[in-house]
What does this fold into?
Amino acid sequence: MSLATACGPKRAVVSPLPAMEGAGLSGHYSVQIEDRLYIAGGCNFPDKPLTEGGTKRFYDDIIVFDGSGRFRSGTLKLPRPSAYGACIPVEGGMMIAGGADSTGTLDNVWIVRADSVETLSALPFPLEQAAWCKDDRGTVYLGGGLSGGRPSKDVLRLGGDGRWEKVSALPAALVQGIATFERGSLCFWGGYDPEARKAVCGGYSLRLSDLSWSTLEAPVTFVGSASLDGYAVGGCDADVFTRAVNLPPEKVREYQLQPREYYRFRGQLLHRNADCEGGWEVVAEDADRLAKAGSSLARFRNGFAVSGGELKPGVRSPEVSFISEKR
It folds into this structure.
């Protein structure tokens, strides 16, 4: 299978927005609230590079792009430093479900709004790097990810009472996957399988009417991709990633020191379109600005904002890009 370019009627242009201050972030959260872009949490290696034994730092900051030409620190902070949680747009803000900090995986659920951060009922267990989506009624689902360093196969649903319940279990582990909702089914796209030690192209579809599973195929993996409403930006190359997770310890630093081009991060914004060859269409392409892993994707004005991400292992980017849809 292959990716279709411009299968649909839309075209998109990638342009720069003002960059974040500092070393950049990955695993962070972003959303548009009113006309402003909010970026929260995330992590980086601020003091010493990963290849020199640097320590990853997690953040609780919330910064705001208010149209003045720069990002400014907001008056709010997250209740604790966090990265790698599910970032789910809700009315007036975003939900952050799970995540991780320097102590391990988190079970917290927060709602971030322009003037408040609300703590909701916790997840049934700590969870990070899970896929999420909403069904046609707006119900939120989570699937896969890691819990305390071990893969979780559970599919969770947020009930009307504000509590999470288990719906089903994935046929196999998927970490750093993405999810879409299509024709009554939840579709979970890989991601990687830490048990099989490989990146996954494709995934699994759960039909909600009878909770039956079927397999999905895709031409790429979504390890390291940021996703939103059937769109996915950036991410890893399946072959390069699979080789990396199977390296012996003495070869890891050599892998981390390769030039950026070696990792073949995908410089594209993709959109799920079952009518296209391979089921995914390329709606924007920029080998420099979009070729990152661990970015955050948010609706912004009449397009999307793509913020931060990893240029190569341990090296974050402060760049923020705007993808404007053109017809």
Q: What stands out?
A: The helical segments are 238-245, 249-256. Residues 238-245 form the longest helix (8 residues). The chain is about 5% helix and 45% strand. The longest strand covers residues 104-113.
